[in-house]
Structure formats: structure tokens, C-alpha cells
Specification:
Strand content: 15-25%
Distance between the termini: 42 Å
CATH architecture of the largest domain: 3-Layer(aba) Sandwich
Largest sheet: 6 strands, mixed
Helix content: 25-40%
Shape: globular
Structural class: alpha/beta
Number of domains: 2
Number of strands: 11
Number of helices: 11
Strand order of the largest sheet: 8-7-9-6-5-10
CATH class of the largest domain: Alpha Beta
CATH topology of the largest domain: Rossmann fold
Order of helices and strands: HEHEHEHEHEEHEHEHHEHEEH
Length: about 325
């Protein structure tokens, strides 16, 4: 039986972590010094400039100077106050930005008009990149009108077919981010196509293992349940019909997807069919990395910068 999730009127009074409030939480924080990597189109330049105007970042523009200035002119933005680090092309810009991060000159990175793979290639380098002991992963934060809580989805952008050990880190990264966002005990739904464990669907075996790992203290700070189908993760009625009783079913804060393809499709369906607002951040690296798409509206870019600043502020205070 399929359950239609209708907008809940009570959501109107439960918007403490909606995107506008997220930006408002950053007021009074010192902006994050952020390398904008290859901002050579009006959209990426406009996003960085607007985030700076709202006091979220201090941009350092890294890339070909002539192209950056042309993009600023096309966007109608004055960038005379921004530091500009010249680099001949996008690959060099990614390397320069990562080097700035390693030297401690910036506190965050923001993707401009280069491919995600090109930026992340430099970030992932063993000797010169920004790796930590954790697997690097991506988390979307969605504001869905039909859902009465913020919804985090991971990983829909970096890890293509994560193994169990990868999913352990992906899950912990998302839980840690949820804490920074103010969700004290996030509920993590580990998604699959069914709610029962079967060797015919490896994602159900991973889900069961992750839940046991949480019981053994290998994943901390959240409540895990899985495998859960999407409807049972976000709809109390669907969970009731299936006879699922858990603190996660029907009220998940985090959706841990089986692989990048399923996560990417879920995120884009929410964006284009549900008109949900999604902001995203790369976690598990030495510093937050803002990955934006050319299709992202300005508000999404600004909200992503706000998430990065909350992460930076937590690190400054030793809380992360």
C-alpha cells in the first residue's frame, strides 16, 4: 500500500531549522574566510558575493583574473574589496585553493564554475589534499513543505558505491553535522527498497550491520534504524501500516541512501517535484566544502554558506 504524504498544517509552527532561520543563526559570527574556486560565471560569482553581503563569508577568488572580472561585470557585482589569487585554469585554481586551506589561510572552500570531480580530485590527494581519518562525504539539508523537520540526505554527490566501512563514516559525518545544526539526537533511517533483511539486497545487510555497529558504539550520537523504505522512514502512517515500531520510522532526520545514484535521484525529485529547498556541504575533510550546482538558486548557495559558517564556528569553539 502506498501512502501519500500530505502537507501537515502543524509544519507552519515548526520551522526552527528552516533555511531562513539557519542564516539568521549566523548573525554575530565572524564570517568564514572562504576560497571561491574558479568563479568564472555570473552564478557562482553572484552566490559568493551575496553570501559575503550577508556576512557569512569573506571571499578569496581563485582563478583566471580576466574571466573572474568578466563574470563580476556580468553579475553586476563590485569585487574590488575581494582578494583575488590568480590561477591560469580550473585545475590550477583547485590546487591553489587546497594549498590555501592547508596553509590555514582559508576556513572553507566554495565550488565555482568547475566540475565537482576536478575540485574533489585535489581535495582527495593523500599528500597534498584535505583528507582526515574519516571518509569524505556530502550531506544535503532539505526544507520540505510536507515534512515537519529538516531532512538530511547522504551521500548523493561523492561516494558512488560506498562499502560498509564507508557508510559508517558517511553516517557519522551526517550525525555530527546534525549536532552542529542543533539536532541533539538525530534519527537516522538507513534506506533500502524493503524493511526486511535479505541477501538478495546487499543494502539491507549493510543497514542491519550499521544498526549493530551503533549498538556497539562504533557509530555514536544518533538513533539508527534500517533497512527502511523511503515511505516508512518519513511517514508515520506508512510505518504504522507496515507494523514498524521504532523511534526512527516515520520521523527520520537523516536518510542514509544505498548509493550515489539513488541519493542523487531522491534529492532531485524533492527539488523539482516537491519544490523543496536543498543546501549542501562536504563533510569529513579538514574544512567544509560548499558544492553548488549551476542549477541552484541564489538562496541555496547562501544557505550552503551558512551551514559552512556554522561548521567553522563550531571548530573555532572546539565543539567539532
Amino acid at each position: 500500500m502506498n501512502t501519500v504524504i500530505a502537507p501537515d498544517p502543524s509544519c507552519k509552527t515548526n520551522e526552527h531549522l528552516r533555511h531562513a532561520e539557519l542564516v539568521a543563526r549566523c548573525k554575530g559570527m565572524a564570517p568564514a574566510i572562504t576560497a571561491i574556486v574558479h568563479p568564472c560565471d555570473p552564478e557562482s560569482l553572484e552566490g559568493a558575493a551575496q553570501a559575503a553581503a550577508e556576512g557569512l563569508i569573506v571571499p578569496i577568488l581563485v582563478g583566471p583574473e580576466a574571466r573572474i572580472r568578466a563574470a563580476a561585470a556580468a553579475a553586476g557585482r563590485d569585487i574590488s574589496a575581494f582578494r583575488l589569487v590568480a590561477a591560469p585554469h580550473s585545475h590550477a585554481a583547485a590546487a591553489q585553493a587546497v594549498a590555501l586551506a592547508r596553509r590555514g589561510e582559508v576556513e572553507a572552500l566554495m565550488k565555482g564554475s568547475l566540475h565537482t570531480d576536478e575540485l574533489m580530485h585535489e581535495v582527495m590527494q593523500d599528500d597534498t589534499g584535505l583528507r582526515t581519518g574519516r571518509r569524505i562525504s556530502h550531506v544535503y539539508l532539505f526544507d520540505v513543505a510536507a515534512y515537519c523537520r529538516p531532512l538530511l540526505i547522504t551521500d548523493a554527490a561523492i561516494n558512488i558505491q560506498p562499502r560498509l566501512a564507508d557508510k559508517q563514516d558517511i553516517c557519522q559525518n551526517a550525525i555530527d553535522l546534525a549536532h552542529i545544526l542543533g539536532i541533539q539526537l538525530p534519527r537516522v533511517a538507513i534506506l533500502s527498497a524493503v524493511e526486511t533483511v535479505t541477501d538478495k539486497l546487499p543494502s539491507t545487510l549493510d543497514a542491519a550491520a550499521l544498526c549493530k555497529m551503533a549498538e556497539r558504539g562504533q557509530i555514536t550520537g544518533g538513533l539508527l534504524d534500517g533497512p527502511l523504505a523511503f515511505d516508512n522512514a518519513v511517514s508515520p502512517e506508512a510505518a504504522r501500516i507496515k507494523g514498524l515500531s521504532s523511534p526512527v520510522a516515520g520521523q527520520a532526520d537523516i536518510l542514509l541512501v544505498p548509493d550515489l545514484e539513488s541519493g542523487n535521484m531522491l534529492a532531485k525529485q524533492l527539488t523539482f517535484f516537491e519544490k523543496a529547498e536543498g543546501a549542501g556541504i562536504v563533510v569529513g575533510a579538514r574544512l567544509p566544502i560548499i558544492l553548488t550546482s549551476r542549477a541552484d538558486p541564489l538562496r541555496t548557495r547562501v544557505t550552503s554558506a551558512a551551514i559552512a559558517l556554522l561548521m567553522v564556528d563550531a571548530r573555532r569553539r572546539g565543539a567539532a
